[in-house]
Amino acid sequence: MKTFRLAAAAAASVLFLTGCSLWGAGSESEAAGSSYSSVWDRSSEQPQAPKLEKKDFKLSTATEYFYDRLSSQRMKTAVLTLIKGLRAHDEAISLEGLELKEDELREIFDLVISCEPELGWLDYHYHYEVETYKSGKIANAYFRYTLSLEEERAAVEEMDSIIEKIVSATEGMSDFDRMLYFHDHIISNCEYDESGKNAWSAYGCLVEGRAVCEGYSKALIALCSAAGVACLPVNGTSDKDGQELHMWNKVQMDNEWYNIDLSWDDPVNADDNESSELGSYINHVYFGCNDERMSLDHIEEEISIISYPKANAAEDNYFIKSGLYIDDEERAGELLYSIAADRLERGESAFQILFSSDEVYSSFYENQIKSEQIFTALSQLANEGFNVDGTSFLYLMNDEQDIITFILKQN
């Protein structure tokens, strides 16, 4: 849970942004597949691995990305074997001939259920059991499902129908605009809620409108896969001490990689009158972040079979792309006026501004907000006919990200 300080010219209140635990283990915060048991020992030699080819499978863009970068054919075959069995609802999946160790299966399982949004009905609390040879290599893995195969197929069909409508609305859009549409649509139609049985799935996010971070992340993967856009899940933690498990995404826009965290851009709706306007505002703090900015409060989990692409670009960061960026202390007041006028012309009374450094951010606060110089710009806007109260406004300070959210009062 992220907490930021909120201040206002007339009133003060508090707004909370959501965080979450990973993998659907509830308060246990335990990764799916991280517990298992060897229930039988076998001494016979393992047979040959099955012959499976990627071209015979419909894979998400996330699975395809990681599959193509696996170092061995043995691991690639294991991924396809697991996907084939889970899609068929096999309670026992043979892994004979692959010579998988338990830690290898755990990482492959985590990869598959992170990257394939339709596999949302595994019993996460049961995890799985394995049957091993005396050598420790796995012969079979056993799974449980929360829906029947027929029920799951009906649920996937329902979800696919929604995905098709959302994706079709973005036809012809640029990479940035398409991703912004996905971002805003998901946040507008989903509420952070870990109480639902499908909260850790794309179905919970897109169909039921209730999910946690993993559900948000998988929903974006589902939309991007349908649109042919590369989008990956990122597993990690959301604090410096590594105590809170979390999932977000890396997406490709204009051939560059960027981070997006949907659940942290989705604020908790506030019920009180003072902060209800802030509570319903869609944030874009975590839209198009590079790794340096993301690392301020997100830590990627290092896994041996997965290497995340580096995100170093800035051009499609939401604030830079949208002109909501101030990097000049001397022109801060002028830039604020221009930004506010542009947003008001768009019919938006709430907007966020990213500052280029701690120094520019602090200087703006001291010289524009604390000194009340900002009212000069607001009064000018009101005098020029904009529907804005020149004497009052709300603002939210994000000291960690150097972002200020403004909510202008309207007459």
**Which runs of at least 5 residues are low in confidence (pLDDT < 50)?**
1-19, 21-37, 269-276
Q: How would you sum up the global shape? A: elongated
> What is the count of distinct domains?
3
Mind telling me the C-alpha Rg?
A: 24 Å
Would you give the CATH topology of the largest domain?
Answer: C8orf32 fold
Structural class estimated from helices and strands: alpha+beta
Please estimate the helix content: 25-40%
Average pLDDT figure: 86
The top level CATH class name of the largest domain: Alpha Beta
Strand order of the largest sheet: 2-1-16-17-15-14
- Main sheet characteristics: 6 strands, mixed
Distance between the termini: 34 Å
Strand content: 15-25%
CATH 2nd-level architecture of the largest domain? Roll
Number of β-strand runs: 17
DSSP helical segment count: 14
Structure report:
This protein has 411 residues and is of the alpha+beta class. It has three domains: 31-146, no CATH class; 163-319, C8orf32 fold (Roll), CATH 3.10.620; 323-411, Ribosomal Protein S8, Chain: A, domain 1, CATH 3.30.1370. The protein is 35% helix and 19% strand. It is built from 14 helices and 17 strands. The chain has helices at 61-68, 73-87, 102-115, 149-168, 175-189, 202-206, 213-227, 262-265, 276-279, 291-294, 318-321, 332-345, 358-370, 374-383, and strands at 2-8, 14-17, 38-42, 92-94, 129-133, 138-142, 191-192, 210-211, 231-237, 245-253, 256-260, 287-289, 299-300, 325-326, 350-355, 393-398, 403-408. Strands 2-1-16-17-15-14 form a six-stranded mixed beta sheet. β5 and β6 form a beta hairpin. It is elongated. The chain starts with a strand and ends with a strand. 40% of the residues are buried.
